[in-house]
Structures are given as C-alpha cells and as structure tokens.
Amino acid sequence: MRVALVVVMSVFFLGTSCTKDDLCSGETPTTPLLQVEFRDYLDRDALKPVTDLSINLLDNDTTIVQNGLNESLLSLPLDSEADQSAFYWIKNASDTINREVMTVSFFYQRSEQFVNRACGFKTQYTNLAIDIEINALSWIQDLDLLTPNVEDEEQIHLIIYH
Predict the structure, then answer these.
(1) Is residue 126 a contact partner of residue 109, using CB atoms and an 8 Å limit?
(2) Model's pTM, two decimal places?
(3) Residue 101, Cβ neighbours under 10 Å: how many?
(4) Strand residue runs (E) in the chain
(5) Where are the domains of the chain?
(6) Each residue of 75-110: pLDDT tens digit?
C-alpha cells in the first residue's frame, strides 16, 4: 500500500511540475527567417535553382550562412541584434574560375515579441529594404520584395530572378 501511494504521488508531482511555458516546442513560432524564392529571369513564373550557392556574412567572409545550395527556395536568417544584414551571395561557389559574387544588404526595423518563458522573445522585422547593385553582368537580374514585413515563415518574402 505504501509503495502504491509513493508511486501515485510521484506520478502526480512529475505530471504537474512542468507547465506549457516550461517547454519550447519545435512548433512554437520563433524569430522568422527571410523566405527567398529563385525564379528564371526570362520565364518569371518558373522556379530556377541557383547552382552551388553560398551565402557568407559581409563582415567576415569566412562565416558561411548557407553553403552548396542547389535549391529554388532559401530560408535566410537576418541579424536580430542589428538593423541590417549584409551578405556575399556567391553563385558557383566551389568553382574558382566561374565564381560570381554579389553583395546584398537588407535594412529593417526590429521589434521583439514575448513568446513564453521557455522560448523567450522572438524578433520580427518590418520596413524591409534591399540594397543591391544590378547590371547586365550580374547573375541576379531583378528582384521583387513581396512584403516589407518578416513576421512568419508561411509566405515568400522575396523573389530573386536570375
């Protein structure tokens, strides 16, 4: 009887000691990533992966944000500690002869939103603006900023045509 009482009390205390705010579920929305889609410049509705794409921080070209991508969709983290993020976007990154490098900078305002005790705060980005120099020789030929606010990862924020 005594053992059963100890087991019941242990289960009770273990079951009630954790609250929903004590765990940060993978399903809980946190700071969103910028959703970028790559499309064909000539056929603007067609998805077009970038060959061997690498994205490095501009401040430190050895810090790789993304590497070896051959995808048509990219999730890019923006700096949650500053009002801008600047990157080298390198097409054909592993090919030293045909490598094409572009500098892309994002400017935005940040606002923090409390999620819960376990997850803490998440940062949302508003008034997103992009600085990029595009010319006839650039591998990026055009872009469309679909929304100036990065509040979730449910939608594409930026389309890059190449």
Answers:
(1) yes
(2) 0.81
(3) 14
(4) 34-39, 53-57, 64-69, 73-76, 84-91, 100-116, 120-132, 142-145, 158-161
(5) 2-161
(6) 999 999 999 999 999 999 889 999 999 999 999 999
